[in-house]
Amino acid sequence: MERSRIDAAVDGARSLAAEAGIALPGFASWSRADWLAGAGSEAAAVRPAMERGLGWDVTDFGRGDFDRVGLVLCTLRNGTLAERDSGAGQTYAEKFLVAQDGQETPMHLHRRKTEDIINRGGAALVVELRPEQADLDTVVTLVDGLERAVRAGVPVRLEAGQSIQVPAGVFHRFWADGGVVLAGEVSSVNDDVDDNLFLDPFPRYAAVVEDAPARYLLVSEYAEVLSGAR
Fold this sequence. Notes:
The protein is α+β, with helices and mostly antiparallel strands. About 20% of the residues lie in helices and about 35% in strands. InterPro entries: D-lyxose_isomer (IPR010864), EcSI_cupin (IPR047581), RmlC-like_jellyroll (IPR014710), RmlC_Cupin_sf (IPR011051).
């Protein structure tokens, strides 16, 4: 993806959140320079946020067609893998998501993460679940806290305020239908590096084409910063 388009997508997500009255943490407005200055400071106060993967992620999932397959995410809260594995401390995560009309997050699963996908506002969010086991055709889950048996491949339509639980080990995809959707994700600890298995093997993060100076620092770039490579 072009850097200019990534930065514009973050600008758009911030504007949509503000218009909807969704207040984001202060770091959601930080520039690339703000992050780099904080990470390089003697106190390095922002390093824990970077180590937890807090901040912006704009991806086309390696498809090269962001309008059709893509998502804008901001990780607001997240525990560490050590906290996840010990079951103590911050064992939860939260994300803010923006999906444009018809824009899909492709079929994937998480081995370690159970999540609620929430329609915070806008158009309808359509979610499709599939068991990993090919001989199963139903997923028993919760929709707004009520148990529901969801048939594999049958779309579940979430209107604003509704949510669906996606258990660990269940394939899922989702897309906005009828307009932009502001969504949320509340889950166990999030690990986007090693806990995403896509049905079609494409990368989780976008390859970036540097067509303009970068204004935002993406979560996928933190590892290089923390290692001192940037």
